[in-house]
Amino acid sequence: MRIIRAKDYDDMSRKAANIIAAQVQLKPDCVLGLATGSTPIGTYKNLVAAYEAGDLDFSEVKSYNLDEYRGLPGDHDQSYRYFMNVNLFDHVNIDKANTHVPDGLMEDYEAACAEYDAAVAAAGHQDLQLLGIGNNGHIGFNEPCDSFIVGTHCVDLTESTIQANSRLFDSIDDVPRQAYTMGIGTIMGAKMILVIANGDAKAQAVHDMCFGPVVPSCPASILQLHPNVVVVADEAALALCPAE
């Protein structure tokens, strides 16, 4: 696991975008695993700027998103499909037919989740998987629990995650209580994993991810077992980590 220190959020976003951009430039038809939430917004802005400057071509890129709220259609302004359109897809030349987000309205969700994993595998797995990390150590919506769940699945969100996401909704009562998420096995199938984190609220989770025991009570700790993980985090998020 390699840790890259950033000065602040903007520096973290630039560094992360540079890593993703390098992947797209080296392999124009790469498969990107993408994340949502407030942390990657700056990264996506930098990627859009690079595209607008003529430095990136997304025309052959395929993408698979980590997760989606259960019960939200893709055109809902808090759905993750909507988020990706607004923050990245609408601003670059990616073919939206090559972008994939779990369907929040899937009826037979067990079959649909299995199909999502099969599609990721058929695409050759993610060349690069972008991840944020939750205050409780969750990645995607893999919440702290008693075991690592391998495949894409439906999960009950913890109260801390509901509280963290409530700032995006009119009322906490509007926050979905369940989500579909790539499982740990699907995430770990990526050839490279890029984790981004900022702010002191993430400091304990980042420390436990990088230096704590590998336990399902901190889902991100499993990343210690992956051969190619890069963590880009600002000084506040790395406050509890050793300097070297």
TrEMBL record:
Functional description taken from the UniProt entry: Catalyzes the reversible isomerization-deamination of glucosamine 6-phosphate (GlcN6P) to form fructose 6-phosphate (Fru6P) and ammonium ion.
GO cellular-component term (any)? cytoplasm
Which ranges carry the Glucosamine/galactosamine-6-phosphate isomerase domain?
Answer: 11-224
Its annotated pathway reads: Amino-sugar metabolism; N-acetylneuraminate degradation; D-fructose 6-phosphate from N-acetylneuraminate: step 5/5
SUPFAM superfamilies given for it?
Answer: NagB/RpiA/CoA transferase-like (SSF100950)
Query: NCBIfam families, from UniProt?
Result: nagB
Single GO molecular function: identical protein binding
Alphabetized UniProt keyword annotations: Carbohydrate metabolism, Hydrolase
| UniProt-recorded name of the protein | Glucosamine-6-phosphate deaminase
The gene for this chain is: nagB
Q: Which residues form the active site?
A: D67 (proton acceptor), N136 (for ring-opening step), H138 (proton acceptor), E143 (for ring-opening step)
> So what does this thing catalyse?
alpha-D-glucosamine 6-phosphate + H2O = beta-D-fructose 6-phosphate + NH4(+)
Q: Which GO terms describe its biological process?
A: carbohydrate metabolic process; glucosamine catabolic process; N-acetylglucosamine catabolic process; N-acetylneuraminate catabolic process
According to the UniProt entry, what is the EC number of this protein? 3.5.99.6
InterPro entries given for it? Glc/Gal-6P_isomerase, Glucosamine6P_isomerase, NagB/RpiA_transferase-like
